[in-house]
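Hi there,

I know you've been waiting on this one. I reran it after we fixed the sequence typo, so this is the corrected version. Both the input and the resulting structure follow.
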Amino acid sequence: MLQEYRLKKKYQFNYVYKVGKTCHGRFILLVFSPSKNKNVKVGISVSKKVGNAVKRNRARRIIREGITPYLEKMEPNFNVIVVAKPSIDGLKMPEVRADILATLSKAGLL
């Protein structure tokens, strides 16, 4: 995922959590809010409930690669945070990518 598509600062995450709406998938939770940016910005959050550092980093990598193909197709002017659920541990890329697609369409972001 390119730098221009990333949420980086804590205040950006806090704003999305405070103002945003949520949409649940099987393995992820989407929190999204409108923004003034010309393109969509995505942040990834993986808590310690998922597992140790190795499992959290793997979940982060899988989510990042799973959402990358949909960035160009998503509605502009949105900030999105993808929160990993503990059930994401041990999954393969196609399962996570399918869940991301289903959750994005359910939220109306595609």
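Quick highlight: The chain has three helices and four strands.

Best,
R. S.
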